[in-house]
Specification:
Elements lengths: L1 H14 L2 H19 L5 H8 L8 H26 L8 H12 L3 H34 L4 H18 L4 H14 L3 E2 L6 E2 L13 H18 L20 H23 L5 H15 L13 H16 L1 H7 L5 H12 L7 H5 L1 H22 L3 H7 L4 H20 L3 H19 L4 H23 L6 H4 L1 H18 L1 H11 L4
Antiparallel strand pairs: 1-2
Amino acid sequence: MGDLITNLGIGFSTALSIQNLLYALFGCFIGTLIGVLPGLGPVATIAMLLPSIYALDATPALIMLAGIYYGAQYGGSTTAILINVPGESSSVVTAIDGYQMARKGRAGPALATAALGSFFAGCVGTLIIAAFAPPLTEVAFKFGPAEYFSLMVLGLIGAVVLASGSLIKAIAMIILGLLLGQINTDVISGVPRYSFDIPELTDGISFVAIAMGVFGFGEIIMNLGRPAEHREVFTKDVKGLWPSKKDFKEAFPAVVRGTALGSILGILPGGGALLSSFAAYTLEKKIARNPSVPFGQGAIQGVAGPESANNAGSQTSFIPMLTLGIPPNAVMALMVGAMTIKGIQPGPQVMTSNPELFWGLIASMWIGNLMLVILNLPLIGIWIKLLTVPYRFLFPAIVVFCGIGLYTLNNNNFDVFLAAAFGIVGYAFYKLGCEPAPLLLGFILGPMMEENLRRALLLSRGDWTTFLTRPLSASLLIAAVLMILVVTLPAIRSRREEAFKDAD
């Protein structure tokens, strides 16, 4: 307990510096903004902002990116409640009952429940990270190359199992990501691989180019292809923000359950905010006995549970990323990419080699959640006004800023053309119903898997059984096989498809 307080003291002294506070506020503001504007999610936004971190120190850069991620969970609920258009994928469930509450003139209590539930979940999530990160880091130091390889296999299979949509397509995206990760120079022989004599590819495909292309440009093309929504914005009905005593009584148990569920699911590979919000809504429907308002018609539990779960899930997904260097979802893959850009090797050594960064990031999450409550409730009028900005004005500005950011990476046109190509690929994925998140995970983890595989085989003199004779490695591989077997069972497969069918 003493160590925890000491560590949090280091964190808060780092996070409370003027520079870090400003970047936390900027991240939370941008996160809320992109959450409010439909069509721009945290993955696309963080991908677009990656070039900007080159000019920043590692700590403020990661604090800003983290603020964008959990800020988007708050902002996404605003559009979901007011116009029935989820600003962020994890807010899909919130729209079911939140929009109905707005139609009945209860937009204020719905928005306040979402914000306060998210704040509670964010605080709990931060405490869980602070409490569990050190022991997990100690365990991680016992990992050798074989264990890391097996853990990454488990992570990729988890991403496939928990990805929405077709399992076959998710596996294909993983494999494509792994193959793209092989375009580089072999670290042992020094021979360029799959570069097709293009000098720019000898160092590998730029992580920023692929992320910005698939998620940034791909999202823009996808949104331009959608018909303009006939939006009904409940600007006049947002009054009486503070929920009644009855609202608190009904919402609080749902907030606690959503927080607990989201905290667990956020740690799982492929988990995070989206899976947590769906699971929490399903749980509330099963548990709630005779709710005063039926689910689907404006039940406050249908807002409180999912919103708490998605924020808790987004917070705890930092645990495997910070302690093991393994990203559980696409946003965390981008965070790993950001750390690599800043010359920091993600993994257990971060806590010992960069304690200010590690604990400063954790402390900034609590500060950021407090900022978000202040940003979301009193400034609700500003966010409503933003909903009226036509997308035809937004997308050219986004494309221009992306192009400038890409060019400044290496001061050449190649990265811009590469991102444009991946933008077309990203749009094709959308049309084919392929989720691009597993591709990004495969791209990030592929080179790391290869390195650990080769190191493990070198140490064992080419003996492949080393992955099965080492107990921890064998346990991780068995867990991966069990995940595949479970998800292929007909009953589980049908339940999985049912859980994700509303996400489209």
